[in-house]
């Protein structure tokens, strides 16, 4: 277990430094929403540390690094261009934090937002670590199953994003709910498939010694997406914009898991 904690510490140090630099950049540009990009990039960075210094099978380490990197580059790039380069300004959450934090805004953003999210990334990266120190000389069926689930989840999330983007581009759909394709069966299929990506990481980790510990990541992501960040925040905004139209959508359509509509 010494290697486990040593690598975990190395991952935390690397993300602490990275988030500190990112905080400084956010302070200089006046937009702390850059932390959302940092959240995804930090996970790739931690996984890279585990890849470089873990003593596990090279092919296994490479597999999880490619999985995490593909996910991180896709999501991080999207956040970078929509929230930072796109010039949309800070997210409403961070604007509210600025008011709450007062004169201590920069210090509290450093600790409460940037470094807290970095520490959370270290916990979420536990399955990556378990996979990277697994010395089993062959890839197991369970690991291939996790990789297959990852592919399905990434394709599902991309499809959901594309369906929503296409729906929003049509001016005739203004004020309406997107109920086409996957959105007919779930109010948040994008979040559902994002969660499945984390399930796939946990599934791959199960083939490693103490791999069950890696299940902490999909459990935490499910809680965050359904109780704190994803679904609740999106629903609150949708209710403000569409009112009773969205309430009817809530009544008939599953919030997270795709399922048939209620009558």
What does this protein structure show overall?
The chain is mainly alpha-helical and 263 residues long. 73% of the residues lie in helices and 0% in strands. It is built from eleven helices and no strands. α6 (126-132) packs parallel to α8 (189-205).
How do the helices and strands line up, and which of them pair or pack?
Elements: H1 2-29, H2 34-53, H3 58-84, H4 92-101, H5 105-124, H6 126-132, H7 141-169, H8 189-205, H9 216-228, H10 230-242, H11 244-252
Helix pairs in contact: 1-2, 1-5, 2-3, 2-5, 4-5, 6-8, 7-8, 8-9, 9-10
* Fraction in helix: over 70%
Could you tell me the mean pLDDT?
94
Nearest-angstrom radius of gyration? Answer: 20 Å
> What is the percentage of strand-forming residues?
under 5%
Uncertain regions: pLDDT < 50 for 5+ in a row?
Answer: none
| Amino-to-carboxy terminus distance | 53 Å
Please summarize what this structure is:
The radius of gyration is 20 Å and the shape is globular.
How would you describe this structure in keywords?
single chain, 73% helix
